[in-house]
Design brief:
alpha/beta, 7 strands, single chain
Length: 142
């Protein structure tokens, strides 16, 4: 596990960008954990930038999933409104995985049974209005 302290939203985004440098070409699952307002979506914005995507990244809380297409696909899930992994499988989780995309899942604690043990875990803890403690497991950052 690697732990970082970010002091601004921009630093959180930059950490997300840096994470993409270590992702395998064939796709990856990034399981995100953290309370409301912790900075999960800011982290994903940085990931999109790191994947070369020039798009507006927003939380898919009401749509459940946002797809960002480019040279590498980023599929952004928000499981806040789901009650379990069965609902994630109902919306085509396995199909998304088979596309070789980077699949980022906010509120992963709600769908733990959908993971196979090879996911990258990102845990964001809000320390203050601007500071975050971000722990990353399953990936090496340069």
């Amino acid at each position: 596990m690697i732990v970082f302290i970010t002091k601004t939203e921009q630093e959180t985004e930059e950490l997300g960008r840096r994470l993409t440098e270590s992702l395998p070409e064939g796709g990856a699952v990034v399981a995100m954990y953290g309370e409301l307002g912790a900075g999960k979506t800011a982290f994903v914005r940085g990931m999109a930038r790191g994947l070369g995507l020039d798009c507006r990244v927003s939380s898919p809380t009401f749509t459940i999933v946002n797809e960002y297409l480019g040279a590498r696909e980023l599929i952004h899930f928000d499981m806040y409104r789901l009650s379990g992994a069965d609902e994630l499988f109902d919306i085509g989780w396995e199909d998304y995985l088979s596309r070789g995309a980077v699949c980022v899942v906010e509120w992963s604690e709600n769908v733990q049974d959908a993971f196979f043990g090879d996911e990258i875990a990102v845990r964001i803890e809000k320390l203050s209005d601007t500071e975050r403690r971000i722990a990353i497991e399953g990936a090496e950052l340069c």
